[in-house]
Amino acid sequence: xxxIIHRGSSRGHANYGWLNTRYTFSFAGYHDPSRVHFGAxxxxxxxxxxxxxxxDRHPHDNMEITTIVLEGSLEHKDSMGHxxxxxxxxxxxxxxxxxxxxxxxxxxxxxxxxxxQIWVFPSAKNLxxxxxxxxxxxxxxxxxxxxxxxxxxxxxxxxxxxTWFSRISLSSEKNITYTLHDASHGVYVFLIDGTADVASAxxxxxxxxxxxxxxxxxxxxxxxSDILLIEVPLVW
Length: 236
Fold this sequence. Notes:
This protein is mostly beta strands and 236 residues long. It folds into 2 domains: 12-135, Jelly Rolls (Sandwich), CATH 2.60.120; 138-233, Jelly Rolls, CATH 2.60.120. Helices cover 0% and strands 58% of the residues. The chain is built from no helices and 20 strands. The protein has strands at residues 2-6, 12-15, 19-23, 41-49, 54-60, 64-71, 73-78, 83-87, 90-95, 100-106, 113-120, 130-135, 146-150, 157-158, 164-170, 175-179, 185-198, 201-204, 208-212, 216-233. Strands 1, 13, 14, 15, 16, 17, 18, 19 and 20 form a 9-stranded mixed β-sheet that branches. Strands 2-3-4-11-6-9-12 form a 7-stranded antiparallel β-sheet, with no helix packed on it. The chain has a 4-stranded antiparallel β-sheet with strand order 5-10-7-8, with no helix packed on it. The chain is globular and about 45 Å long.
């Protein structure tokens, strides 16, 4: 088994006033040659957007983009004609493909918006752009894996890559195993909150860990923990 740990405090940081963000991988003005990506996982940004703040209309292409809203409400508008709000416990996916434009704003002028934006390299270039979103019941991840994203599973949102996003609320002292769909893949474990032992390493809130060269991993909650796990191909 091969592992790499990214402590939450070691991430890149930028504060633009309206946006306070932490970068797990190199992004914007933050560049660390040892942290460019983990396999097909290219971006993992932990964003807090102040009331009324947001990203003006901007382009993307040839990337699979997932947004997970933790608190608040995100207002999304794009060149495909979507005008949507994404709230806590909802997940949004986009295939940027041949090119899209979109804007993202905090829909509440009074309350901070907290979200993860995660980019995965696609399985092919110049795909047709697409959009989807879905609400996931928190009860569905109590001490069990809740699939958020998959290339082909009913009930999950689809991305054009062999990637699976799973979330769990793991109770203190409980453990669970995750079996990879392909032993040549890797998994990136991100501790949203809590304390957990993952592959014999202890992770605290906002720590991330890449694990590879193993068919499965076991996670044990030291205290109640909210965990996001992303399985990706290491070569694609």
